[in-house]
Amino acid sequence: MSDADLEEIRKGRLAQLQQQQQSGAGGGPGAASQDEQKKQQEAEARASILSQILHPEAADRLGRIRIVKESRATDVENRLIMLARSGQLRAKVTEEQLKELLGAVAENNERDGTAGGKIVVSRRKGGWDDDDDLLDL
Fold first, then answer.
1. What's the count of helices (H) and strands (E) in the chain, helices before strands?
2. What is the pTM of this model?
3. Reduced to 3 DSSP states, what percent helix, strand and coil does the chain have, rounded to the nearest 5?
4. What is the pLDDT of residues 11-69, one digit of tens each?
């Protein structure tokens, strides 16, 4: 692609965004669309950083984790981004390293009591029993 082609694509995208803003501004307040744009930009920035620091296999695993438990995936992403910004990551994170990080996050959540995955079943003592119906006859 040449620079002229890229510039033409940029102009077309800019015109499309302006048209969306004009059609969206008449239906609601402008602050809501600005918040939405800010969230979208933050999500794009996160995705960009993660694509730079994760191997494709690790990114796939993180995507599957997000499907099952969004909060766990967000915690792992936050930790990865923090490590990348502090310069502690020397190379791209592999799937095995991601598994270790997932284990560390799970242990941390269990220690804090925020695991949320613990299910407690309490049964009443002396509850109803099917055999009790026969004694009434």
1. 6, 0
2. 0.56
3. 70, 0, 25
4. 888 888 888 877 765 555 566 788 888 989 988 888 888 889 999 999 999 999 999 99
